[in-house]
Specification:
It is a single chain. The strands form three sheets. The protein has an eight-stranded parallel beta barrel, surrounded by four helices. Helix 1 packs across helix 2. The protein folds into two domains: 243 residues, Alpha-Beta Barrel (TIM Barrel), CATH 3.20.20; 72 residues, no CATH class. The protein is globular. It contains 15 helices and twelve strands. The protein is of the alpha/beta class. Bound molecules: iron/sulfur cluster (2 copies). One iron/sulfur cluster binds next to helix 10 and helix 14.
């Protein structure tokens, strides 16, 4: 009698079963892409681990392992995301070689660089990172520059602590330089169907140069509300890896469902994309938060997008006393221009805030009128 051990994946729904030559073959229709010259094979759905800071350790470990059980193998975190690294460490310490872990350092000198790297490795319960990225530096780190961080990351790579080197950035000028200089294996940069032609050129140039492109803000900081459309748009770019920021099971399931039923880019999808592009053709706040904190206590990254929210989301969510109070804070603006100087998209933030406040007041008045 012959005894066979049959491995059944935990989530069998994601596999197609066929019977060939007397054997049951399980195949998975998930899209796997290669992350540029790193050669890393990753599921087209990446996991952005910024939002898991907001949930408990227990919930985060459950969510991460649920993602893993459904084929997601790329996890992006950062030293800056408080306990996100620790949560990833707790979820994957027992299967380290099965997942690809990327983290980031915001260090701008070698002392901080080594401090961050060692802390990150401890948090993640590992002795190496698959990808280590400079986290949105205001310049493009290069060999021999005065910060010394590029030379330090090369040392870490030689020591086996870092497999590949990447950079994340919100500034088009730094991103361009990173691509042109050929010093990085990957670029992490905001990209969605609302991005400019200049951004799209960066995406194309990373492909030409064999760099992996890790796509952040694929939902444009919450302005794109149709995740299927966002996924379908990015699915056209084979070297692009979106990292979806999820913090609950239903959000995760939404993206997992696209693995077996990938949304198509139909003519009606393109009409919707064009409509959104028309509405957001001018410069808009991406909600990245790099202009924060504000000395007057204004929640800039939300308040500077209020008009867009009012036109694109249910009014009841934003026409509340709580939001009215936050928007009123704009009256306290000291016009110090600190936010304007820090905005990587060169937005005239104080003016944008005023415009959003005026718009909010119109909607607020209308709400009061309707209540009479
Ligand atoms: S200009 Fe106004 S909104 Fe901007 S940082 Fe200064 S006080 Fe805050
Ligand atoms: S104003 Fe600029 S820096 Fe501030 S949240 Fe918006 S896009 Fe980011």
């Amino acid at each position: 009698m012959q005894i066979f051990t049959i491995f059944v994946p935990r989530n069998i729904d994601h596999y197609d079963v066929s019977f060939i030559n007397g054997l049951y073959i399980l195949t998975n229709s998930m899209k796997i892409i290669t992350l540029g010259r790193t050669g890393l094979k990753v599921n087209k759905n990446g996991f952005g681990a910024l939002p898991i800071q907001r949930i408990s350790m227990k919930k985060a470990v459950f969510l991460l392992q649920e993602a893993y059980d459904n084929g997601i193998n790329f996890y992006d975190t950062a030293r800056f995301y408080t306990d996100s690294e620790e949560k990833i460490g707790a979820a994957f310490a027992d299967r380290r070689d099965k997942v690809i872990i990327a983290s980031k350092t915001g260090a701008q000198n070698t002392t901080d660089f080594w401090k961050d790297l060692h802390q990150t490795l401890r948090n993640l319960k590992t002795d190496y990172l698959d990808l280590y990225q400079f986290h949105n530096p205001p310049f493009c780190p290069r060999p021999g520059d005065k910060s010394g961080i590029y030379d330090a990351i090369k040392v870490a790579q030689r020591q086996g602590k870092v497999r590949f080197i990447g950079i994340s950035n919100h500034r088009i000028s730094v991103a361009k330089e990173a691509v042109d200089k050929g010093l990085y294996d990957t670029l992490q940069y905001p990209f969605s169907y609302l991005s400019s032609s200049g951004d799209e050129k960066i995406v194309e140039n990373t492909r030409k140069r064999g760099m992996g492109f890790i796509c952040m803000k694929a939902l444009a900081g919450g302005l794109i509300t149709d995740s299927a459309l966002a996924y379908a748009f990015l699915n056209q770019f084979d070297h692009v890896l979106p990292i979806w920021g999820v913090q609950c099971k239903s959000e995760l399931e939404e993206f997992i469902s696209y693995q077996t039923n990938p949304p198509e880019l139909s003519s009606s999808s393109w009409r919707k994309i064009e409509k959104d592009r028309m509405e957001l053709a001018h410069d808009f706040c991406r909600g990245c938060g790099y202009c924060m904190p504000c000395p007057a206590g204004i929640q800039i990254c939300d308040c500077a997008r209020m008009s867009l929210f009012l036109h694109r989301a249910p009014l009841s969510v934003y026409l509340t006393e709580e939001w009215a109070e936050k928007m009123k804070k704009i009256e306290d603006c000291k016009h110090c221009n600190a936010c304007r100087e820090k905005c990587p998209y060169s937005l005239d933030t104080p003016t944008l805030l005023q415009k959003n406040y005026e718009d909010f007041k119109v909607f607020w008045k209308q709400k009061a009128k309707n209540a009479l």
